[in-house]
TrEMBL record:
The lineage of its organism: Bacteria, Pseudomonadati, Pseudomonadota, Alphaproteobacteria, Sphingomonadales. Pathway: Aromatic compound metabolism; 3,4-dihydroxybenzoate biosynthesis. This is 3-dehydroshikimate dehydratase. It is an enzyme of class 4 (lyase). Belongs to the bacterial two-domain DSD family. GO terms for biological process: 3,4-dihydroxybenzoate biosynthetic process. CDD domains: HPPD_N_like.
Length: 621
């Protein structure tokens, strides 16, 4: 099952000609021309049409046309005249299809027979011009706001030039059951428009015009909806129509590429529901983090070494030919790369000591690569030395790498590449595994990376949270496997002085801002780290007074928490303990967590942490 992909030009930023180039480059077969984009373009409709043919992008539709059916006589004549003029524009663009939105005008009459008559006459006029009209129920339409009503009109008009446009946003925002799509005859479905959205409690118009997003980025049950459409036998265009303020502030190429990826994901999900063959292997089920690689100069490597030691890591191996050290304890591997060339070195030159790669433990390397390729996720390759084991990798957040490590690779990697033992692994580790990795990015990029992880990996998304930084709001959202073996949190902020934004400025881009390790005994870990002189993030006494008031914790426990700067959250009977280190070189910092049945990330404590970190902020310049 393969979708024919299209996108409405309104979905991306820039001038119309730039949009069309980005659309062609991302691999779409078609584009809907949004009228406002044409009105503001310096090129004529004929020139745009020629440009589209040259780019190999079919003009799938011209849109929107508003307010025609069910008007009083005087307005009606004007609307028909307007439509006739648009047929000329469509001729020049090279499309035969125009979208008619259900009438939103206060003059529209609730007179079904009149609407049928108008649509019939419109069909006659369109046919005479060799054109077709697709009728779409807007969720806020005055008398037609439900695809079951727009379909009933189209069905009853029964004119070959009048068909239906389905738009997932309007149907799913109104929670119309997708089973109702089964009544629609596929030859009457002229085009399908695709959009996801977060579940919000707001009016349809503003929700639609500002918060639409791509399949996989929102909360709508789009896979079931798409499967219901495919089941009718529909084999036309699947056209993204995304009104979103964030996307209009982003790179056209990035948004066009993400949109194409989102349609591939939707096609895959629908095929699986329908038990039809999908063009790609299923989502990858990662088993956890195999390693985290840091790029660091020798001096920075010493800074990291001090922190790693204090947290209980030992340098267990040296790379056999490269300036790379493996630190380990429990199931955690941290690799510090100080090579004078290669990706890690470039990373260090740009960002300073930082995380340049993450190794994901995956069950099947080839399946992961095939899925990434089908989703147009670029691979990364750099020269490998003789006898060196090549670990395939994908480009991830901020140009960092996501290595795909399966069982064979893992055995070869540690045994063959790091044969030189330095010190034995700690017998009694303070930390057991990587709990989560927090990546910070531009606010506009967050949905892009959410889609990346969600499309590639079998992860679910948590709802987006708003966290109060003393200098502005930070948005945070996690992707995690069902068993919690892999967790990423994505963070972004529009406030220029929030910690997230300052990270991006100081770091020159998006990247890993902190890493949380799991401990089975957070108190022992905190005590050992404090004894080793690790600079901790100090939490003030008010926080502990409040904890006492809220939870009536044992006073001894509370006193120990205060002494060791341990934060706390509770969810039912489940408990969460966490503490933070100071940032290394003002960039990456570390967290230690102990989960006692707790599944979240201590969001209530995030403002406390951010306030504590703001103390170290450089003064406003
Ligand atoms: O918001 C609108 O006006 C609008 C216009 C055209 C569409 O296809 C649509 O879904 C919404
Ligand atoms: Mg629409």
């Amino acid at each position: 099952m393969t979708f024919k992909t299209s996108i409405a030009t309104v979905s991306i930023s820039g001038a119309l000609s730039d949009k069309l180039r980005a659309i062609a480059e991302a691999g779409y077969g078609g584009a809907e021309i949004f009228e406002n984009d044409l009105l503001s373009a310096p090129e004529s409709a004929r020139e745009i049409g020629a440009m589209m043919r040259e780019l190999g992008v079919e003009c799938t539709m011209f849109q929107p046309f508003r307010d025609l059916e069910g008007l009083p006589d005087d307005l009606r004549a004007r609307a028909f005249e307007r439509m006739k003029r648009k047929f000329e524009v469509m001729e020049q663009l090279g499309t035969d299809l125009v979208l008619l939105c259900s009438n939103c005008s206060p003059h529209a009459m609730d007179d079904r027979q009149r609407m049928l008559d108008d649509l019939h006459e419109l069909g006659e006029m369109a046919a005479a011009h060799g054109k077709r009209v697709g009728y779409e129920a807007l969720a806020w339409g005055r008398h037609v706001a439900d695809h079951r009503d727009s379909w009933a009109l189209v069905r009853d008009v029964d004119h070959p030039a009048i068909g239906l446009v389905l738009d997932g946003f309007h149907s799913l925002a109104r929670r119309i059951p997708s089973a109702s799509i089964g009544d629609i005859r596929p030859e009457k479905l002229f085009i399908v428009q695709v959009a996801d959205a977060p579940m919000l409690d707001m009016d349809y118009l503003n929700w639609s015009r500002h918060f639409r997003c791509m399949p996989g980025q929102g909360d709508f049950p789009l896979a079931e909806w798409a499967a219901a459409i495919a089941r009718t036998g529909y084999d036309g265009w699947w056209s993204l129509e995304i009104f979103n303020d964030r996307f209009r502030a982003s790179s056209a190429h990035q948004v066009a590429r993400d949109g194409h990826r989102s349609l591939r994901l939707l096609e895959d999900q629908a095929a699986r529901l329908l038990k039809r063959p999908s063009p790609m292997p299923p989502r990858i089920a990662p088993k956890g983090v195999e390693f985290i690689e840091f790029a660091a100069s020798h001096e920075e490597a010493e800074d990291f070494a001090r922190v790693f030691r204090a947290l209980g890591f030992a340098p267990v191996g040296r790379h056999r030919s490269k300036d790379v050290t493996r630190w380990a304890q429990g199931q955690i591997n941290l690799v510090v790369n100080s090579e004078p060339e290669g990706l890690a070195h470039s990373f260090d030159m740009v960002h300073g000591g930082s995380v340049c790669a993450i190794g994901l433990a995956v069950p099947d390397q080839q399946a992961a690569l095939d899925r990434a390729q089908a989703l147009d996720i670029p691979r990364f390759a750099q020269p490998v030395g003789p006898d060196e084991w090549e670990i395939p990798s994908l480009r991830g957040v901020g140009g960092s790498l996501l290595y795909l490590v399966d069982a064979d690779t893992r055995a070869a990697m540690w045994a063959d590449e790091f044969p030189r033992a330095v010190e034995p692994a700690p017998a009694k580790p303070l930390l057991s595994r990587v709990d989560h990795i927090a990546q910070t990015m531009q606010y506009e990029e967050m949905l892009s990376w959410l889609l990346y992880y969600h499309a590639l990996l079998d992860v679910k998304k948590t709802p987006q949270l708003e966290i109060a930084d003393p200098m502005g709001l930070v948005y945070s959202q996690a992707v995690e496997t069902a068993d919690g073996a892999l967790r990423f949190t994505l963070n972004g902020s529009m406030a220029v002085q929030s910690l997230s934004s300052r990270f991006i400025q100081a770091y020159f881009g998006a990247g890993v801002q902190h890493i949380a390790f799991a401990s089975e005994d957070v108190f022992a870990t905190a005590q050992a780290a404090a004894d080793a002189g690790l600079p901790m993030l100090d939490i003030g006494p008010n926080y502990y007074e409040d904890l006492e008031a809220k939870y009536a914790l044992d006073p001894d426990l509370l006193a120990r928490m205060e002494r060791l700067n341990i934060l706390y959250d509770r969810d039912g009977d489940a408990e969460y303990f966490q503490f933070y280190t100071r940032a290394v070189a003002k960039r990456v910092f570390f967290e230690v967590v102990e989960r006692r049945g707790y599944d979240g990330y201590g969001a209530v404590n995030a403002p406390i942490r951010l306030n504590a970190q703001a103390k170290y902020r450089d003064p406003l310049v």
